[in-house]
C-alpha cells in the first residue's frame, strides 16, 4: 500500500497539472492544432471566354483563377500536382518560408526539375510562424498568367487578429489577360529580342469588368451590408504591371503586407507590385447610399516600354433593406481618382507608411548586426545575339536585364540538386559579384558600354549569417521600378531613397525598429532600397524581379545557404518523387 505522504504528494502533482490545464488551456489541444491538409492540383487545359474571345488556357482543376488553399499557422500542406498538359510545370508557394523544405519551393531549375506531361510531384511543407495572405503560382516561363490562386493562412485556433474581427473575408486577385497564348507571346519576344506584346485587359478575380470590350457580364460584384467590416485579401498576380487599387468614396485600412501584420494606416489608394499581397479593412457606410461604387485598379508604370494602360473595375453594391432600393441597376456608379501612372512620389510615400506591427506578440526581429554586405545594381542592358539569331536590336542585339551586370542563365538541371549532391561543376559557379563590376553614376548618364555579361552565378552564405543588401536601380535604357522577390525568407526594408545610395550618409537613417517585413519589395525607379535578412534556412533560394518580362531577360540570381551544424539546421534529402530533368 502507498504511504500517506506519497499519496499526498501524488494528489499535489495532479492538482498542479489540472491547474496548468485550466490556466494554460492551449496545452490541452496544442498537439491537435497541427492538421495535415491534402490538396490535389490537376494541371489541365480549359476553354475560357474573355473579351468575346475563347481560348484554351492552362488551369488547375479547370478553374481560373485557381483553387484557394486554406490552412492555419502550423499546419502541414500536402499538395499533389499532376500534369496533364504538354507544357512542363512547377508550382511555387509564394511567400511560404519553406523552413528546411526547399525541395517544395517550386522554381523550375532552381529547386526542382519541372513536372513533365503525365508525371506528378507532391509538394510537402509546413507553414511555420506565418499567418495571413500569400499565393501560389506556376514558376516556369509565363504559365503563371493563368496558373495562380490564393493561399489563406488563418491564425492558430483561439488566436485573434490584432485588428477588428471582420464580418467577412474576400480575396481580390489582380491579373492580366491576353487574347493570345502567353507562351507564344514570350516566345516571339525571345525570337526578336524586343519587348513582348502587352496584355489586352487587366482583371479582378479573372474578370475584365465593364470598361473592357464585351465584358459587362464578366464583372466582379461585391455585395456588402452597411456598417460592417470586410477584410479584403489583395494579391497582385499580374505578370508585368504594378497596380494601384481603390474603391470609390471608401477608405481602406492596411493591416498586413506579405503575411506580416503592419501598423494600421488608412489610405484611399493601395500600391501593390506583382508578387505582393496586402490585407486591407473596408468599413462600409452605416446608411446604405443611393449609389454603386467602382472597385478599381490601374497600372503604376515607370519604365520606357509600352504597358497596358487600362483600368479594370468591379462593383461594390450595398444591400438595401427597403425593397424599392434593392434594385441597383439604375444607381449611379462612382469611380475613384488615381495618381498619374508614373507617380513615383506617391509610390515612395505609400511604401514608407508600411511598418511592421512590432508588438510584443509579433516583434520585428531585425538583424542589428551585419555579417555580410552586398551592393547589387538591378536594371536593363543589351547583349549580343548569335549569328544564327535574327534579333531586331541594333547590330543584332537583344534587350537584357541583369543584377550587377550578370544576366542569369537558367541551368539544365536544378541548382538545389547540384548543391546537395556536390555536383556543381558545369552547373553553376560561386563567383557572383558582391559589388558592381564597374562603378558609374547609376541613376545619371549611362555608361557608353551597356552590354551585360551572362552566367549561372550564385552567392554562398554560411548558416545564420546576417545579410544587408542594397538594391540600386540604374538608368541604363531607362530607370524603372523593379519588384524584387526573395524565396525562402522575409527581409526587412531598413531604408529606401531616390538617386544613388550613399554608403556613408544613408545608413545613418536606417530604420531598424519597425521596418516593413516583406518577401517582395519594389526597388524605386531611379532609387534604391536596403534590406536585411538572416540566412537561417539552408538550401538554394531564387531572387528575381517579379515583372515576368524582366525575369525572362535575366534579372535574377540565387543564394546558397549552407547547412548549420545541428541536425535541425540541415536540409533533408530530396523526396523520392522529385522530378528528373
UniProtKB/TrEMBL annotation:
PROSITE patterns per UniProt: MULTICOPPER_OXIDASE1 (PS00079), MULTICOPPER_OXIDASE2 (PS00080)
Note describing how the cofactor binds: Binds 4 Cu cations per monomer.
InterPro entries in UniProt: Cu-oxidase-like_N, Cu-oxidase_2nd, Cu-oxidase_C, Cu-oxidase_fam, Cu_oxidase_CS, Cu_oxidase_Cu_BS, Cupredoxin, CuRO_1_LCC
Ranges for domain Plastocyanin-like: 43-156, 169-320, 431-564
Reactions listed under catalytic activity: 4 hydroquinone + O2 = 4 benzosemiquinone + 2 H2O
Listed Gene3D superfamilies: Cupredoxins - blue copper proteins (2.60.40.420)
Cofactor: Cu cation
PANTHER family reported for this sequence: LACCASE-4 (PTHR11709:SF522), MULTI-COPPER OXIDASE (PTHR11709)
Family designation: Belongs to the multicopper oxidase family.
Compartments in which it is found: Secreted, Extracellular space, Apoplast
Pfam families: Cu-oxidase, Cu-oxidase_2, Cu-oxidase_3
NCBIfam families on file: laccase
Extent of the signal sequence: 1-30
EC number: 1.10.3.2
UniProtKB keywords: Apoplast, Copper, Glycoprotein, Lignin degradation, Metal-binding, Oxidoreductase, Repeat, Secreted, Signal
Identification of the protein by name: Laccase
UniProt GO molecular function: hydroquinone:oxygen oxidoreductase activity
Species the sequence originates in: Stylosanthes scabra
Functional description taken from the UniProt entry: Lignin degradation and detoxification of lignin-derived products.
Enzymatic class: oxidoreductase
Amino acid at each position: 500500500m502507498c504511504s500517506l505522504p506519497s499519496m499526498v504528494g501524488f494528489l499535489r502533482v495532479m492538482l498542479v497539472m489540472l491547474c496548468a490545464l485550466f490556466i494554460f488551456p492551449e496545452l490541452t489541444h496544442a498537439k491537435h492544432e497541427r492538421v495535415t491538409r491534402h490538396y490535389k492540383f490537376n494541371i489541365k487545359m480549359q476553354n475560357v471566354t474573355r473579351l468575346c474571345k475563347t481560348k484554351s488556357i492552362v488551369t488547375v482543376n479547370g478553374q481560373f483563377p485557381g483553387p484557394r488553399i486554406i490552412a492555419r499557422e502550423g499546419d502541414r500542406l500536402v499538395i499533389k500536382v499532376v500534369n496533364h498538359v504538354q507544357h512542363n510545370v512547377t508550382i511555387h508557394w509564394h511567400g511560404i518560408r519553406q523552413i528546411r523544405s526547399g525541395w517544395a519551393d517550386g522554381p523550375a531549375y532552381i529547386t526542382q526539375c519541372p513536372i513533365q506531361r503525365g508525371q506528378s510531384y507532391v509538394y510537402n511543407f509546413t507553414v511555420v510562424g506565418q499567418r495571413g495572405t500569400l499565393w501560389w503560382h506556376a514558376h516556369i516561363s509565363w504559365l503563371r498568367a493563368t496558373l495562380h490562386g490564393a493561399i489563406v493562412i488563418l491564425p492558430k485556433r483561439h488566436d485573434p487578429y490584432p485588428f477588428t474581427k471582420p464580418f467577412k473575408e474576400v480575396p481580390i486577385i489582380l491579373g492580366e489577360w491576353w487574347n493570345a497564348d502567353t507562351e507564344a507571346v514570350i516566345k516571339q519576344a525571345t525570337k526578336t529580342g524586343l519587348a513582348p506584346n502587352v496584355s489586352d485587359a487587366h482583371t479582378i478575380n479573372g474578370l475584365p469588368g465593364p470598361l473592357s470590350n464585351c465584358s459587362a457580364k464578366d464583372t466582379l460584384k461585391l455585395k456588402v451590408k452597411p456598417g460592417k467590416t470586410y477584410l479584403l485579401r489583395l494579391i497582385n498576380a499580374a505578370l508585368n504591371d504594378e497596380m494601384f487599387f481603390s474603391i470609390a468614396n471608401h477608405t481602406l485600412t492596411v493591416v498586413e503586407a506579405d503575411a506580416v501584420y503592419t501598423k494600421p494606416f488608412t489610405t484611399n489608394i493601395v500600391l501593390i507590385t506583382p508578387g505582393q499581397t496586402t490585407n486591407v479593412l473596408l468599413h462600409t457606410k452605416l446608411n446604405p447610399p443611393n449609389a454603386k461604387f467602382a472597385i478599381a485598379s490601374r497600372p503604376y508604370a515607370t519604365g520606357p516600354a509600352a504597358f497596358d494602360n487600362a483600368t479594370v473595375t468591379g462593383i461594390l453594391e450595398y444591400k438595401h433593406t427597403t425593397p424599392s432600393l434593392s434594385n441597383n441597376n439604375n444607381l449611379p456608379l462612382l469611380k475613384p481618382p488615381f495618381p498619374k501612372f508614373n507617380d513615383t512620389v506617391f509610390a515612395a510615400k505609400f511604401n514608407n507608411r508600411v511598418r511592421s506591427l512590432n508588438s510584443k506578440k509579433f516583434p520585428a526581429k531585425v538583424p542589428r548586426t551585419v555579417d555580410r554586405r552586398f551592393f547589387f545594381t538591378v536594371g536593363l542592358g543589351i547583349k549580343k545575339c548569335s549569328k544564327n539569331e535574327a534579333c531586331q536590336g541594333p547590330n543584332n542585339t537583344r534587350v537584357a536585364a541583369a543584377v550587377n551586370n550578370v544576366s542569369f542563365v537558367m541551368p539544365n538541371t536544378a541548382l538545389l540538386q547540384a548543391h546537395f549532391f556536390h555536383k556543381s561543376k558545369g552547373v553553376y559557379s560561386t563567383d557572383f559579384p558582391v559589388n558592381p563590376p564597374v562603378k558609374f553614376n547609376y541613376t545619371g548618364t549611362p555608361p557608353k558600354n551597356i552590354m551585360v555579361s551572362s552566367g549561372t552565378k550564385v552567392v554562398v552564405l554560411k548558416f545564420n549569417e546576417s545579410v544587408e543588401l542594397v538594391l540600386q536601380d540604374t538608368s541604363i535604357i531607362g530607370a524603372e521600378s523593379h519588384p524584387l522577390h526573395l524565396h525562402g525568407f522575409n527581409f526587412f526594408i531598413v531604408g529606401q531613397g531616390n538617386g544613388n545610395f550613399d554608403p556613408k550618409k544613408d545608413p545613418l537613417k536606417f530604420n531598424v525598429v519597425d521596418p516593413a517585413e516583406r518577401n517582395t519589395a519594389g526597388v524605386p525607379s531611379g532609387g534604391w532600397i536596403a534590406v536585411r535578412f538572416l540566412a537561417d534556412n539552408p538550401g538554394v533560394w531564387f531572387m528575381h524581379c517579379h515583372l515576368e518580362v524582366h525575369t525572362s531577360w535575366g534579372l535574377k540570381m540565387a543564394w546558397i545557404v549552407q547547412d548549420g551544424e545541428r541536425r535541425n539546421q540541415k536540409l533533408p534529402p530530396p523526396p523520392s518523387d522529385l522530378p528528373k530533368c
